[in-house]
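Section 5.1 Outputs to date
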Amino acid sequence: MAKPMVVGVDGTADSLCALGAAAELAEESGAGLVVVHVRHESGVVAANSALAGAGVAINEALDEVEQMSRQRVADVLAGRRVKWRFEVASGDPAHELMEAARHAQATTIVVGGRTHGIVGGLVIGSVAQKLVRHSPVSVLVVREGQAQRLEVTPIR
């Protein structure tokens, strides 16, 4: 069996399209999938958690997003001929995905990519960008919800 791939999911359409692309590759190669959902508080949310009761509300929201992601992953992978497991981590998404890849001895990390403007990329950063720059394993970024298969014809 091929080494697994790690797929980052957050319940968004982009991440679920990346999951679908990874599942297709996994079915073809015999690789398994380690589907990772990272519970992540943005800096803005963390700063506002000083308000009374905000911590409870933040945790409830993170719980809801995790459950939604778990259900959507199960829906996307239903009927697929691929072994997979769902893991949850907390912290910086790029770091946690690299840690999951290291732990699983994965060959690839697959994530969805959405286009951020220059300011958006600077302010909120990009998990895909961080992974491409720092990951010790290959990174596949599925953009705009589409993965295009490149058919290669041998030269004769």
